[in-house]
Design a protein that fits this description.
single chain; mainly alpha; two-stranded antiparallel sheet; elongated; DNA-binding
Length: 223
Amino acid sequence: MAVTDEAIEKIKEMIVSGALRPGDRLPKESELAAELGLSRNSLREAVRALSLIRILDVRQGDGTYVTSLDPQLLLEALSFVVDFHRDDTVLEFLAVRRILEPAATAMAALRIPIEDLDVLQGKLDALGAEPLVEELVASDLDFHRGIVQSSGNSVLCSLLDGLSGPTTRARVWRGLTQEDAVSRTLHEHRAILAALRDRDAEAARSWATVHVASVEQWLRSTL
């Protein structure tokens, strides 16, 4: 095991065991290095690596702290990594989204406040019948984020937020090349909203599946 990897594992072990808790300040570099039997250089590299993935927060002039370790914070790294996807893996991202998003939508059907549904409806109405493709895709991201946030599962919400990026270009491409893509998207959004208002989790799940699958099916036919 590389020295830096060993240092990362030892800090991880301290956090997992509870020796360091969210919000705790790490001991001084010299003290922690001696306690863990590490060189200060390897410890410094480990801290730098863990700060990149939001495990640690290095505050200049103050010290190094364990972050809140909230799922949304930790999964920011996922969003960064998936930005490096290859075009030929977009279908795989869509397949994962097709598994997760309908489940989140079904969960939201039992939880989402009426006021939030009214906000989503207002934004949908404001788009009109023939929005620009770029406006529709941006609205689509916002629409699903608003629903998923009501699922009550912050991990699921963060995962889907990170997975939405790789499919954005595909959705714009579809909107520009498929004749009825815009009208179908608007129709599916309205159907999802109607199911949510009815508190019909299975209908919401079904419409969300249709919604993601339609993009997936179109992309598969064009590749």
